[in-house]
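Two records follow; treat each independently.
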Amino acid sequence: MTDHRLPANPDLEAWIRANRAQFTEDALRRRLLEAGYGPAEVDAAFATVEEEAAPPTDATAFGAAGVTPAQPAAGAPSQVGTSNRTRDAWLAFLVALGGILGVPFLLAFAGFATAGLAVGLAAAVAGLVAYANFQGGPRPGLATGVGYALLLILLSPVIAVVGLFGFCLVQGRVN
């Protein structure tokens, strides 16, 4: 196959590369034509620059059989999207909350208070272990969700006691 284009001018190509992020292609073409370059020369320079910037079109570039994408470098940001992280956090939060509070509550409600207490303590320890294991892992949303569930479980009684204590102080004051 023969290429019938004019050879591109390297100076024009460099100028186009340097300015294409700031100006539209039409504005760049107009400026080059006003500067005295011919339309064929401008077209050849743009064609060369566009070919360099175009993504590869061969089948291997898009994951043909036997080709795997390159692994990210160590320390590179995670490829997990924000929506996946949020989903993981909510899922872990609800599962941890249900496991640490829900199951023991149901056991206690059914008349097995001692078993409910034991299951609740075991679930709390499992939640702490899960939180530690998920920290720095490939799915950080899981650690976030379990951590928030543990905080809620630990701080809720404290907030309730402080609130009741404050209420009692206010009601007990003599005018």
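The next record belongs to a different protein.
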Amino acid sequence: MKICPKCSLRRPNIGKCPICLRRKAREKYRKQKENGKVKPRSAEQRKRAAERSAKYYKQNKPKFHARSAVKQAFLRGEKWIANDLRHHPNQGALMFNPKFCSTCGNPDSVSRIEAHHWRGYERENWLDVFICCEICHAEIHVKIREALDQGLDVDDGFRMFLKEKGYGKDTDPNPVESSDG
């Protein structure tokens, strides 16, 4: 880790500070827009973009609703049960606008924090999310693809990811209630 000379925050030693780079790019775009160097999109380009967006929304409606439910919960400041399997293997942990990845510990300033809908996008599972950074989220989907290629299911791919990250053998993303006899 090193301290960024511009924003004075600690950043991983990956070259330039990603936050400062984003800030610089936004500032450059704003200046270009003010100076008339950014061409506005034509009516035809806007129409095609709107058609693509409408088509994507129609094909992925449940995904949009699930994402919206998580965003609204964050905005309202709600606490809900999210799967933090490292600490609570069978029930999850209360999350309140998480700032760190639950697998690698990256803060949201290094890599954007995302919510993986590990149970699917059905209405009852909208808030059943696994909090992780975008890097770990991509790794989850790689493991899921590998599992599907091997003839396994999506849960097996998620379990493979969890096992690889050290969550243990008994970790199940879909915990079954045990009955005490």
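Discussion point: The chain has two domains: 2-34, 61-164. How would you locate this feature using only the token line?
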